[in-house]
Amino acid sequence: MQSFPYEMLREIYEQPVALRRTLELYSDGGKLKPELIKLLEKWTIPEGGVLIAGSGSSLHSGLAAKVILEDLCGLDVAVEYSCEYSFRGGPNLRERSVMVVSQSGETSDALSALREARRRGFKTLAITNSATSAMAHEADVSLPLAAGVEKAIPATKSFTCQLAVLYLLALYESKRLGRIDDAMVAKHIAALWNTPGEIEAQIDNWQVQAAGLAHGKYKAAASFLFLGRGIHYAIAREGALKVKESSYVHAEGYPTGELKHGPNAMVDDTVPLVVLATVDPGLEGSVLRYKKTLQLLRDMKAQGAKVIAVANAGDQEVAGLVADCIYVRPVSEYLFPITEVVPLQLFAYFMGLEHGINVDRLRNISKIVLERELVR
To answer: Which residue blocks in the chain are alpha helix, DSSP H?
Structure first.
């Protein structure tokens, strides 16, 4: 059995197993389980659409879900910080179903958002890592994860399991709305089931590369700017959060196109860029975003910026424009977040080690873990 010096690294490596356990809860043989369909029928989405509330990594999974639900289902989706939702003016808000995403299902901000949604008479859905949490009990519908106990403060396997469940939710809604048929649902589920194997096949190489980058030219960085377009913006935000949490080095996530609207003034030898430059060649929108990202990389190379890119395996064009390139094997556009976030988690982990941080127990941050209900 492999030995791990920190729980954070163990939990990063546990993601394939955690994903398979979670997928087994809600899908079987290329189909959504009848139990899932029956649950989601209780959580109706009105014309007003969906509001997703979350904090930290859970907010970022909500940002990814917004893109998937809008693109695959044609729904109107808003994403709100849990800590802000309760303070919004109720009477003027459009009628919405509310989804609250939380690792523990016990944090005060998430519970407050859930209770406020119920007070307003909205249908509520909770996605948590504990079927016995307060949120799971109080929501109209609960979709627990099967990530297992997550002891390290930085969320890793709970985050990717959130993404998987949100993807299945999008498939249900797309089928319900008549946008895809059973054959397409089966195709999407099969692709989703392939992601744990994709992570297993690449994680050792990602670990070696992330350790080298953190130990080498990026250890002394004063700040990082993480950039991503479309659904990858959510992963840019998540990558930046992981670096802040794990190493106490400042980092921010931005949409790629926003770099030149202010943040580029910060870019110098001490402020590198981390750019998500993966692409799904079969999706027109993804190809367009990729071409725009290539142009930005050309501009940054001319500017002399230090850039780490995450790109499709074998993409020599991206590799030729950046200082360092982390390769990720191609998957579909809406599944890239599950795989491309893993090397960013590893980079944050090794940045923390390089700065002498106990990545499992971070200063000024606490985490609720319900060990009585979750199993490793």
So the answer is: 7-13, 15-26, 34-40, 57-73, 82-85, 108-119, 134-138, 157-176, 182-215, 232-247, 284-303, 316-319, 336-354
Separation of alpha carbons 63 and 221, rounded Å: 27
Q: Which domains does the chain have, with CATH numbers?
A: 7-194 (3.40.50.10490), 201-354 (3.40.50.10490)
With contact defined as beta carbons under 8 Å apart, do 224 and 253 qualify?
no
Residue appearing with tokens 């917004």 = 66
Are 128 and 135 in contact by the 8 Å Cβ rule? The answer is: yes
Burial 304-337 (b: 16+ CB within 10 A, else e): ebbbbbbbbeebeebbebbbbbbbbebbbbbbbb
CA distance 47 to 244: 38
Q: Are 188 and 30 in contact (CB under 8 A)?
A: no
Q: What is the DSSP string of 170-220?
A: HHHHHHHTTSS-HHHHHHHHHHHHHHHHHHHHHHHHHHHHHHHHHHTTTTT
User: Quick one: tokens of 37?
Assistant: 């369909």
Q: CA dist 262 to 87, 165, 227, 254, Å?
A: 30, 36, 13, 11
Distance in angstroms (rounded) separating the CA atoms of residues 272 and 251: 10
364 conformational bin, left if phi > 0, alpha if psi -120 to 50, beta if neither: left
In this predicted structure, what is the pLDDT of residue 368?
66
- CA dihedral for 240, 246, 247, 249, sign (positive or negative): positive
Place of tokens 């209900």: 373
Which residues make beta-bridge pairs with 78?
51
For the chain of 376 residues, list the mean pLDDT of each consecutive stretch of 10: 91 98 95 95 84 96 98 94 83 76 91 92 94 94 95 96 98 95 97 98 98 95 97 98 97 96 92 98 97 97 97 98 98 98 98 96 74 36
Measured between alpha carbons, how far is 159 from 370 in angstroms, rounded to an integer? 16
CA nearest to 203, candidates 160, 139, 260, 255: 160
